[in-house]
Write a structure and sequence with these properties.
337 residues, alpha/beta, Carbamate kinase, 4-stranded mixed sheet, globular, nucleotide-binding, kinase activity
């Protein structure tokens, strides 16, 4: 089946039918779960907290769930498995979530230094970089799946490259969502990630997690979307600068343009500065806002919030859908009805 995506490009997709609706799609920002200043280093504390919060949001039962990572790891206790622990603690009694994560300190170095995002698979350096990038991002994906599985979440890593996703001039051209839908219907939580993929024109490029989320939202229609980041939300300028203001609510209009509702700013377009780190091959916050606006245009609320905080837990639980409390810190992006 071929349809136009939100940029007007034609995208080939597959059967996406799910028997029950998706509750939430979560983006774990790379900066929130890794240490971006240290190559391939996971922020273990944040990842553990995020996984615990996801368990609370996904699994309706408050009982402790048995872990699902039964692999032997260096420095970890021996594998302990008691089949009786599982009983009938119903995995079906859970909300349907999809997790997508960024690369953070994984993948970006390999991609940017080899030029994978620019294409040119005929060049030895680019081909080697494609391999190195995928090794890096899939190793991070495995660790995130492990963390979620340890919490009792039946998570399954799903790489876009392996699922047949591809681009054309960096725009999404083909996306097989049937495997994602099948995994959800089977009671699993799919865990996708930004990936190196084939490009029909350039040979290869980087498909960002934010673009993946936008596409998943368009076809699977979740109730809401949560972006977990390393800062409280979207600011009018880099948050490290003096007098940076947290933009608490952004409204998206019918034509896809956006404006700040809260707090009120004058000449918003001139006051909001978007910066991209030199090593970031996926567009950084600029891409995040653009994709979030595209999702909000579908009538799906988007929450951008700092990971591993009480604010992120409230967003994941869906507590913000009808009313945004004054004490909640984050950014809401929603369609201006």
């Amino acid at each position: 089946m071929e349809e136009k995506n939100q940029t007007g490009q034609h995208t080939r997709t597959s059967n996406t039918n799910c028997t029950r609706p998706i509750r939430c799609i979560v983006k774990m920002g790379g900066a929130s779960i890794t240490c971006k200043s240290e190559l391939e280093k996971i922020n273990e504390e944040n990842l553990e907290k995020v996984s615990s919060q996801l368990k609370q949001a996904i699994m309706k039962s408050s009982t402790k769930l048995p872990g699902m990572d039964w692999s032997k790891r260096p420095g970890k206790p021996d594998i302990s498995l008691n089949p009786d622990d599982f009983g009938d603690h119903s995995v079906t009694d859970s909300s349907r979530f999809i997790v997508v994560h960024g690369a953070g300190s994984f993948g970006h170095f390999q991609a940017s230094n080899s030029g994978v995002h620019k294409g040119g698979l005929n060049k030895p350096l680019v081909k080697a970089g494609f391999v190195a990038t995928r090794i890096s991002v899939t190793s991070l994906n495995l660790e995130i799946v492990r963390a979620l599985a340890t919490e009792g979440i039946p998570s399954i890593g799903m790489s876009p490259f392996s699922c047949g996703w591809s681009t054309s001039e960096r725009n999404l051209a083909s996306a097989d969502l049937s495997k994602v839908a099948k995994a959800i219907d089977a009671g699993f939580t799919p865990v996708l990630h930004g990936d190196a993929v084939f490009d029909e024109i350039k040979g290869c490029t980087i498909l960002s997690g934010d673009v993946i989320i936008s596409y998943l939202a368009a076809y699977l229609k979740p109730e809401y979307v949560v972006f977990l980041t390393d800062v409280l939300g979207v600011y009018d300028r880099p948050p490290t600068e003096p007098h940076a203001v947290l933009l608490q609510e952004i409204a998206v209009s019918e034509d896809g343009s956006w404006s700040v509702v809260k707090p009120k700013l004058q000449n918003t377009s001139n006051q909001v500065e978007i910066t991209v780190a030199a090593h970031d091959t996926t567009g950084g916050m600029a891409t995040k806002i653009a994709e979030a606006a595209a999702i909000a245009k579908l009538g799906i609320d988007v929450y951008i919030v700092k990971a591993a905080t009480s604010h992120s837990l409230r967003a994941l639980n869906g507590e913000l859908r009808n009313n945004i409390p004054d004490d909640w810190l984050g950014t809401v992006i929603r369609f201006l009805r």
